[in-house]
Structures are given as structure tokens and as C-alpha cells.
Amino acid sequence: MTDNMTAKNYQAFIADRATEVQLDEEGFIDFDINGNTYTLSAECDGDGPEFVAISCEIMEVVEEGVALALCAANVVNAEIACAKVFMTEENIVTVSVEVMVEKPGGLPAVFDAMMDALDSGADSFLTTFEAFNKETDEQ
């Protein structure tokens, strides 16, 4: 994670936009916006660049839906290059956006775009997954 001061600055920045903002002992920032919980991490070696990632869990998939969820994630990942949709070992579908910013502390310049990309990735996944389920049910 980025140094403690940068993490605290990010926490303050996000607190203006979100609710329930928490900085954990490992330097990850968890925050809620519109009922969704996000996690922010940032890593930097020296003066830059800084690697920033924001992720959000979308849904848990039951065993019968895992194959369709993986297919839907692949479709979204091919269509939306800026967001990654993946599934954890616990069958939790997660969307993330990762960027390199030129200098440490660069989150404010890219935050809104990252959040838009996360929303687009999540919406696209849910729409695609629903369409796959509907198609499967009709067969």
C-alpha cells in the first residue's frame, strides 16, 4: 500500500463521496456508495508511478450457475477492456478496475472514471448473465 499519509488522504477524499469509509491495518480502504461496498488499494515504490485498484463484489453464484457466470465474465472482459470481471474460489463475482497513475496521490484525478468503469463492468456482467440464464431456461 502507499504510505500511511497517502492512505489517510485517500480515506478523507473518499469520505466526501461515500459512507462507512474504513482504513484497515493493511492499508486497504473499504467504502460504501449507493449500497455497494468497494475496496481501494494503492501501491507505490518511491515517487511513482502509483498502482491504484478499486474492486466491488457483485454477487454470489450458486454451483449450477458457475459456468454461465464464467462465460458472462469472459464476454464482459472482452467487451470492456477497462474493467475486469472475475470469480473467486467462493463463487463471488467481483469487478475491478486497475490503473497506473503517474505520481503518488493521483487518485482524485481518476476516481470518477474508475467508478464509472466499475459500474459499467458490473451492469454489463449482470445483463449478460441474465441473458445467458434466460437463454438456458428457454432451452
Describe this structure in words.
With 139 residues, the protein is an alpha+beta fold. It has a single domain (4-138), classed as Yope Regulator, Chain: A (2-Layer Sandwich). It contains three helices and six strands. It has helices at 4-15, 66-79, 107-138, and strands at 19-23, 29-33, 36-44, 50-60, 84-87, 92-101. It has a six-stranded antiparallel beta sheet with strand order 1-2-3-4-6-5. The model has no long low-confidence stretch (mean pLDDT 91).
Compact description:
This protein is of the alpha+beta class.
Rg, alpha carbons: 16 Å
Spatial order of strands in the largest sheet: 1-2-3-4-6-5
Shape: elongated
CATH topology: Yope Regulator, Chain: A
**Ends distance:** 48 Å
* Number of discrete domains: 1
